[in-house]
Amino acid sequence: MHLIVAEKNISARRIAQILSEGKKVAESKDAGVSTYSFGDTTTVGLRGHVVEVDFVPGYENWRSETYTPRSLIDAKTVKVPTEKRIVALLQKLSRHADRVTIATDFDTEGELIGKEAYELVRAVNKNVKIDRARFSAITPQEIKTAFANTTDLDFALASAGEARQAIDLMWGASLTRFISLAARRGGNNILSVGRVQSPTLSMIVDREKEIEKFVPEKYWQLGLVTEKAGEQIEARHTNGRFKDQKAAELARDRTKEPLVVTEIKEGTKQDRSPSPFDTTTYIVAAARLGFSAANAMRLAEELYMNGYISYPRTDNTVYPASLDLNGVLATIKNSPFKKDVEWTIAHRRAEPTRGKKSSTDHPPIHPTRAGTREVLGDDAFRIYELVLRRFLATLAPDALWKTLKVNFEAGGEPYTVTGGQLLEPGWHAVYPFSEAKETILPGFVVGEKLPIRKVSLDEKETMPPARYTQSKLIQRMEELGLGTKSTRHEVIARLVSRKYVEGNPLRPTLVGRVVTEALEHNADTITKPDMTQTIESHMQQIKESKRTRDDVIGESRGLLHKAFDQLEANEQVIGDDIRNRTAEELNLGTCPVCGTGTLAIKHMRGSTQFIGCSHYPECTFNIGLPVTMWGWAVRTDDICDKHHLHFVRLVRKGARPWDIGCPLCHHITSNVESLTELASMNEALLEKARSKHIYTVADIAKSEPEKLTQQLGLAPAAAQKLRTEAVAMLETLRKRSECRKFMRNHLIPRKGRSSAKIMAALKEAGVTDLAGLSKASPSTLQKAGIGEKEAADILYEARITYNGQLLKETGIPAVSLKKYLAAGISGPEEFCTTAPERLAGMAGMSAATVNRHIALVCEYLHRPVPGGSAAKPEKKAASPKTATPKTKKVLKELLTLKGMTPKVARAFADAGIIRAGDLIAADPAKVAERTGIDRALVADLQKQLKKRQEIIQI
Ligand SMILES: [Zn+2]
Ligand SMILES: [Zn+2]
User: Fold this and answer.
1) What is the pLDDT of residue 568?
2) Does residue 933 contact residue 718 with C-beta atoms inside 8 Å?
3) Catalytic residue at 311?
4) In angstroms, what is the span from residue 591 Cα to ligand 1's centroid?
5) How many angstroms separate the alpha carbon of residue 921 from the centre of ligand 1?
6) Which residues, 6+ apart, have CB-to-CB distance to 546 below 8 Å?
7) Among 164, 334, 433, 743, which residue carries the largest CB count within 10 Å?
8) What radius of gyration, in Å, describes the C-alpha atoms of the chain?
9) What is the pLDDT of residue 867?
């Protein structure tokens, strides 16, 4: 079997169609990968690179002490399959092949992709003959010629590709890691640095600085309007720009009728036909039609793979002698541009135009097949038309202009006007994308006197240099030798996706600028184009077999180690600099509560993120945000009309961003439901609360009653009632959130069913918390969409969890609790209905202890304590180990905190701290002093409470 390996699926299909010469091509799929067969031949398409170079295991941990960022420079690498199904199929087919032809794109990247395929084939079939077909267009003629004249893979060319790949990985990975760690950034927020990327970004930053530094200068332009044969003609003063206003005004005042014609210069000007398209000039021309560089390349590649145009990655601007221009003209005569093709054939210039760059790899971009708008679609057709018309223009004659320059004088002041008229349209006839503006002047004679209708003096200002457009930047990158024709547009797209630049024309973001400057100040080799130019010349030497891949990579390692010497010495400075300067991008606006602080997004260690005020702890206003699992919080440019705060967005790799919008609007709407659930709440009160920056149930719960009275204009009793309701609601919300979490953890993930959906169904059935869930019937759960067996499991788990919590609340010490649970006693009910002796036996505890616990439970459940002298409530109340019944009740919401032992609870109760609200607002130092509880523990308990509230707010 003859196996043909193409770069992409589309080209594999088209090559099969061409080589089968009308025979039937059978398409079959293996694990989703298509192959195309005819006779004894099968074609298969790769997806560009199907393997990726990565570091050997061990380097995954960014914070490893052994595998530092610098160690990545010398790290060993391996090739790992990225397209596993394609790799598997390629190897499966290779085992039975007696000839394999590599038909990937013909350039460095294509040769490397070909070599990767070669290695995969060789790994499973030592002896099969492997050859290489090279072509510049997927047309019948080119393909047949290429397959009739196959050669060997060019290992030197592939080596150059490998060297570039290795160097890019080494630079990118080590520097990105170093800078990100120095700036303490991780996850989606890393700061990427790259060999080509960083110098390119630096150019954009430099241009921005030029623009900022630019001081506009005033200048004056003097002009007049005259008239001839009823036509108004504008002439300008030959001085051009007057720097001095006085001089300009003087010249204006001297300008008096008559205007006398002093000189007439007539001539002709040749307007040369444009040269053939290489990648860069093509991208520039496509940009004029409104296509971004990346889009222009994508469309061109699509056209190439379908055989409509030649290979679009080329540096060549000279048609090779082997290119059959007549053949191309004959082919495209069948396109909708028949008339233009015929015009070109009729007026064809002797030799096609040629540009400055001639290389042997690919011809300039030209059409290879007739296409129509119906087949190609609008965008691809516009690109196709551009390439086709450019080809025609390179064969069309030069245009000829008649030029006219008329000089005047008025009161001793010299004026002039120029005109141009297209005598021979030449190439403009077939290439309308380049403007050819005519200015036709009436006939003048020397000495002729004309009227002056108007004299105008305009004050103007010099303009700063323009920002780079994508296509201008690509041109500049080419001049500086940054990147290659295949990668330049990708580098720019990466800068945009990394949020280093934005807009078109391109301007740097704050982060883009800060990172660039930090590198410039501390290791400028990384941002200068020199180093990357050197590497390009080394690539050339590898291609010509003058140097080896390892030699070049080794030299690059040395350069990078030098850069690290500088960077590591300045790590602290670089990190601080970036952190301090990028803090700005997290600021959202003025804090609406204190009116002086700045609200900003805060990312804490771990996955916590929230919005807080810069005047903390004086101002404690904060807005909870979902944990980073749901996306990393960033601000956007949008600003809320009402609150004047930047919008917030959660971004996550590979997922659509989650737009929170104005954080305060979001905070208000997501809390309004629970607020309106408070019995005392009404529209007017809600409005009033909002105006006093009370947005959540927690805000009310932690407020002093006096303050509420004053802020909301309520009677003291009403304020107290509202606050009590809020405290209770907080507990309800906590229970709901706990139940949600429980369901998330216990539901088996299944497609098409979410725990949120099930919770909504359960809410309908009146189940909102663990207590309700533990008492729910299996049929309620099943109605909510949970299977029979799963429902039983969930109910069992819910009972254990809930009853365990209850038992804990009764005041039974944790150690004993564990023993009871282990013995299978899962709830207070069981406690009261089981004989004490049996309980003691099951849990392995003394009867006295068990009796004491039974008393606790019964008291908790408001039930008479069963007989037994050891279980008298008085005795229990006297026990120093447990809280008094009174404190126990009020402490319910505090008792579930970690570290809250009965002893701590009682100390708190004695100090009057009986609700979450009391503790959360208190000063830890004072609480510690009053209660004798360790300050660290107090702070930790506060933290737990705050976290709980944040969860509820979300
Ligand atoms: Zn504030
Ligand atoms: Zn708002």
Assistant:
1) 92
2) no
3) yes
4) 5
5) 16
6) none
7) 164
8) 39
9) 55
Extract the tokens encoding 776: 């729910």
d(CA 621, CA 614): 10
Q: What does the pLDDT look like over 527-578, one tens digit per residue?
A: 888 877 788 888 889 999 999 999 999 999 998 999 999 999 999 989 988 8
In whole angstroms, how far apart are CA 228 and each of 266, 416, 420, 911, 942?
18, 15, 17, 101, 89
Compute the distance between CA of residue 471 and CA of residue 474 in angstroms, rounded to an integer. 5
As residues whose CB is below 5 A from the ion ligand 2, the structure lists 640, 642-643, 662, 664-665
- Pick from 209, 203, 205, 277: which is nearest to 473 by CA? 203
Please state the rounded mean pLDDT for residues 707-731: 88
SS3 936: helix
Query: From the CA of 907, how far away is ligand 2's center (Å)?
Result: 43
What is the rounded distance in angstroms from the CA atom of residue 587 to the CA atom of residue 599? Answer: 6
Strands 507-508 and 587-590: unpaired
- Tell me which of 282, 311, 500, 860 is the catalytic residue: 311
Question: Per-residue DSSP letters for 744-793?
Answer: HHHSPPBTTB-HHHHHHHHHHTT--SHHHHHH--HHHHHHTT--HHHHHH
Q: Which ligand has its closest atom nearest to the C-alpha of 599? A: 1
pTM here is 0.64
Q: In the structure, what pLDDT confidence band is assigned to residue 869 with cuts at 50, 70 and 90?
A: very low
Cα dihedral 677/679/684/690 (nearest 10): -50
**What is the side-by-side strand order in the sheet with 218-228?**
449-450, 259-271, 399-410, 413-424, 231-242, 218-228, 452-461
DSSP conformational letter for 581: H
Stretch (H or E) spanning 951: helix 935-953
Among all bound ligands, the one having the nearest atom to the CA of 664 is 2
Q: Is 112 helix (H, G, I), strand (E, B) or coil?
A: helix
Tally Cβ neighbours within 10 Å of residue 11.
25
What the block records as the tokens of 168 is 């890019």
Ligand nearest the Cα atom of residue 596: 1
For 683-695, give one letter per residue: b (16+ CB within 10 A) or e.
eebbeebeebebb
User: In the block, which residue shows the tokens 């530092």?
Assistant: 68
HEC readout, 360-428? CCCCCECECCCCCHHHHCHHHHHHHHHHHHHHHHHHCCCEEEEEEEEEEEECCEEEEEEEEEEEECHHH
Tell me the residue type at 652: R
Nearest ligand to the CA of 648 is 2
Residue with tokens 């699992």: 629
Q: What is the identity of the amino acid at 463? A: M
How far does the centroid of ligand 1 lie from the alpha carbon of residue 614, in Å?
A: 7
Q: What is the 592 CA–ligand 1 centroid distance (Å)?
A: 7
Residue 644 alpha carbon to ligand 2 centre in Å: 7
What is d(CA 730, CA 710) in angstroms, rounded to the nearest whole number? 22
Instruction: Identify the residue with better confidence: 843 or 538.
Output: 538
CA 794/CA 778 separation, integer angstroms: 9
- Cα–Cα dist 145/476, whole Å: 37
CB-based contact 161:108 (threshold 8 Å) = yes
Q: What's the rounded Cα separation, in Å, for the pair 594 and 619?
A: 6
Give, for 433, the enclosing helix (H) or strand (E): none
Which helix (H) or strand (E) segment holds residue 197: the answer is: helix 197-213
Q: Is pLDDT at 48 greater than 90 in this prediction?
A: no
Q: Which residues pair with 588 in a beta bridge?
A: none
Question: Residue 552 class from Cβ within 10 Å (0-12 exposed, 13-18 middle, 19+ buried)?
Answer: buried
| Percent of the chain predicted with pLDDT > 90 | 46
pLDDT attached to residue 887: 46
SS (H, E, C) 588-644: EEECCCCCCCEEEEEECCCCCEEEEECCCCCCCCEEECCCHHHCEEEEEEEECCCCC
